[in-house]
Prior knowledge:
By secondary structure, this protein is an alpha+beta fold. The protein contains 11 helices and 4 strands, in the order E-H-E-E-H-E-H-H-H-H-H-H-H-H-H. Helix content is 44%, strand content 11%.
Amino acid sequence: MPREARQLSESGFYHVMFRGINHQNIFEEEPDYAYMKGILRALKVELGFKLYAYCLMTNHVHILLAEREPGDISVIFKRLLIKYVMKFNKKYQRTGALIESRYKSKPVEVDEYFIPLIVYIHQNPLRAGLVKQVSDYRYSSYNDYMAGSDFIETELAMNLVSREHWRQIHQQALGKQFEIDGRIKLPADEIYQKIKLLANGLEPIKIGELKREERNRLLKSLKNKGLSVREIERATGISRGIVAKS
């Protein structure tokens, strides 16, 4: 099947996400995160785009940016990923693809969804259970907003909300999904990680092998935690009828 054509942004703003192939880690240690940030910083200077938010997770990345010229996004991420993957493969003596398929990009408008999107990006480590507070995570742009930064364009968001309100909204759960042009949802790898965490490390695909009562208790717990029947079905392989009745 031919690839779906990318949606182009009239505003030049994009929410971009890419992840490791087969949920593989794309960051193994702190210098890897620093190297990714270093590439972004150099490309910002060279290509003139503006960076509004980022979150570097172990096996995936979220970035919110605005390109300088239409079409720059392709150049930015081609160069970012080629350079990073080459260094990563050499460092860890591996070959082949590191990033799953191609990066995903969604056009973003600066409207009522702009701030929730930044919050959503910053809350990734919180939803994954890696930290208890957004400010504790070192590999996102949250603290750039709180302390000021020459790396992140903080002025636009800070002109829309006060600093105190900024703290408050980052402490409030956005729920399992929120909409940007009706289309942004929790990525599949985050659903996978959330189910695994709630199942005490059990692989989601193994849940169907549990005894019926134990399986149903776990499925009910997953639904009570805000996951939809469809999300659970896709991650576990258990039919939606069984998930719905549990």
